[in-house]
Amino acid sequence: MNYDLTNWPDVDLDKVRTAFREVPLAAYPELARYGRVGIHEALAGQGGLFLASDMAKRLALSPGMRVLDLGCGAGVTSIFLAREYGVTVDAVDATIPEDLANRAAAAGVGGKVRSIRADARLLPFDPGAFDAIFSLNAFFYFGTDDLYPPYIMSYLKPGGEIVIGCPCYREEITPDMPEELLLEFPACLAVHSPGWWRRHFEKSRSATVLHAALHPRGVEFWEDRVRFLVEEQPPREMPVWKRDMIHAMIRMLNRDAGGMVSHFILHVRKDRIP
C-alpha cells in the first residue's frame, strides 16, 4: 500500500502503520533489552541494530579479539559489539563524537572501545592489526574505488574477516532509473548490487567472498525506519533536512513496488596466502 503524501508534513500515524511494515522485536530476541529506541537511536541509515546483529552473527567473535568499526558514526555499533561479544573495538569515523568514551563507560565497556577520528582512506594502524572489520551503512561512501578492497584488507590478520551491511540496489542502476529511486543523489551512484560488491572484492585476488546477498528484510528496513522516525517525532516538528529526508524515503517506497532498493550483507575472509 502506498502512503498518500498530499497533506505532508502532517501525517496520519494509523495510515503510516498500515502502509509500512515494522521489524518485529520477537524476530531478534538477542536485542530484547534494547527496545525500539535503543535499536534505532543515534544510528544513521536503516536497519539499526537489527542489521548490525545479523552482520555480527556472521563473524566468529570472541572476547579478546580486536575489531575495527569502520565508519562508526556515533559509535553505537562499537558499544554494541564490545558489550555483546566482549571484543575490543577501534571506533573510527571522520566526525566521531567526543562523548563516545563516556557513553561506552556508562554501558560498562569503557575499557573496550577506543574512539579514533580518521579518514577511512588514511587509517592510522599497522598492517594485520585486526581480527575483524565491521562496517554498517557507511562503506559505499568510501569503499568503491578499485584499490580500496586490498587496502582495507591489509589491516586484517591472515584469515581475518570483514562484514559490510549497506543500502543497495537489487540490480545495477540504469539511465532510465526513476528519479524517486535515486535517493540522496549523487551519493546513490555509489550504491551497488550485491553482485557488484562480490566482484569488487574478488578481483583483489586476496579475498574469499563467503556471502554477498540481499538481506531478506532489506526493503522492510526502509519501511521500519520511516515508521520509527515519524512515530518518534511529528514531521512538522522536525528540522527541515530530516523532514525532507523522510519525505524522499516515502516517495521512494511508494514508487518501488518491485523491491529495487534494499539492503545487503557482504562477508569476506582474507586469504591466508596472498
Q: What is the end-to-end distance?
A: 50 Å
pLDDT under 50 segments (min length 5)?
Answer: none
Give the helix tally: 9
Which series of helices and strands comes N to C? HHHEHEHEEHEHEHHE
Query: Order of strands in the sheet with the most strands?
Result: 3-2-1-4-5-7-6
Overall form: globular
Give the CATH superfamily. Answer: Vaccinia Virus protein VP39
Number of domains: 1
Secondary-structure class: alpha/beta
Main sheet makeup:
7 strands, mixed
Radius of gyration: 19 Å
Mean pLDDT figure: 96
Strand content: 15-25%
Extended strand count: 7
Which CATH-level-2 architecture?
Answer: 3-Layer(aba) Sandwich
Name of the CATH class: Alpha Beta
- CATH topology tier name: Rossmann fold
Describe the protein's architecture and organization.
- The protein is α/β, with parallel strands linked by helices.
- The protein has one domain (29-175, 190-223, 259-270): Rossmann fold (3-Layer(aba) Sandwich).
- It contains nine helices and seven strands, in the order αααβαβαββαβαβααβ.
- It has helices at 13-19, 35-40, 48-56, 76-85, 100-106, 148-153, 194-202, 218-232, 240-255, and strands at 66-70, 88-93, 113-117, 130-136, 156-169, 207-214, 261-270.
- A seven-stranded mixed sheet has the order 3-2-1-4-5-7-6, sandwiched between helices.
- Helix 8 runs antiparallel to helix 9 (240-255).
- The radius of gyration is 19 Å and the shape is globular.
- The mean pLDDT is 96.
Provide a short characterization of the protein structure:
With 274 residues, the chain is of the alpha/beta class. The protein has helices at 13-19, 35-40, 48-56, 76-85, 100-106, 148-153, 194-202, 218-232, 240-255, and strands at 66-70, 88-93, 113-117, 130-136, 156-169, 207-214, 261-270.
